Amino acid sequence: MAQRQPLIAGNWKMNLNHLEAIGLVQKIAFSLPEKYFAKVEVAVLPPFVDIRSIQTLVDGDKLLLKYGAQDLSPHDSGAYTGDVSGPMLAKLGCTYVTVGHSERREYHGEDDALVNKKVKAALKHGVTPIFCLGERLDVRDAGGHVEHCTTQLVEGLKGLTAEQVAGVVIAYEPVWAIGTGKVASSADAQEVCAALRAKLAELHGDEVASTVRVLYGGSVKSGNIAELIGQKDVDGALVGGASLDADEFAKLCALAAGGPLP
Ligand SMILES: O=C(CO)COP(=O)(O)O
Predict the structure, then answer these.
(1) Which long-range contacts (CB under 8 A, 24 or more apart) does 1-4 make?
(2) Is residue 241 a known part of a binding site?
(3) In terms of pTM, does the model score above 0.90?
(4) Is the ipTM of this complex over 0.90?
(5) The CATH number of the domain where 56 resides is what?
(6) In a domain, 187, yes or no
(7) Which of 101, 125, 145, 204 is catalytic?
(8) Domain residues for 96?
């Protein structure tokens, strides 16, 4: 079975200008000694306007931290006012881009078909999509969460080859746990992450399923990361609020790496 390196990705959402971004990345790099990066991959996902500054800092100081974006256009270029393309992100050295975040689905009307195009656009340009999916509270209360999530998975990965699927990161983010302080229990997270992996195995075989990293996201912090990441099918976390505090984020990454705390 493939060895999956844990990934902790900080989704900054619409927070921090480029000067604040530089400050936060410097603090994270200072707080998290290099040895941790051998055990856990750490990435930050700032707003578009911060990326160039972070690239300069990461390249200049040879930081081991990766970075990426929070969205991309399904198109490569053209008359799409306000959009940012995969080639632009690739040129800036982005490793990751989140696709299909529930806030994009809710506030920008993104549906599974568009998410699927964005996953393909990211892969086409060598930027790893962190493909987000998850159920709303009413769906969970009705007991439909596993089916909802596996359906989103199938729709979002439609038309991809097994090799392409192996290059995607999945993030299970139950909508009711995002920014609410209500973290899914580790058993809840494991249930859905395992079901997603089983669906990947059904569609693309065991090797692909055992290669793909499945993250959990929703109110993750240093106090709950160890239990979440201790689950068999949870390979890391997509962290919102807690990724804006350098000490907390460094602590969280250190715990994901198995400690000790820096
Ligand atoms: O949406 C999230 C990460 O993408 C989760 O946000 P919080 O960690 O703030 O709940």
Answers:
(1) 1/210, 2/207, 2/210, 2/211, 4/210, 4/211, 4/212, 4/213, 4/235
(2) yes
(3) yes
(4) yes
(5) 3.20.20.70
(6) yes
(7) 101
(8) 7-256
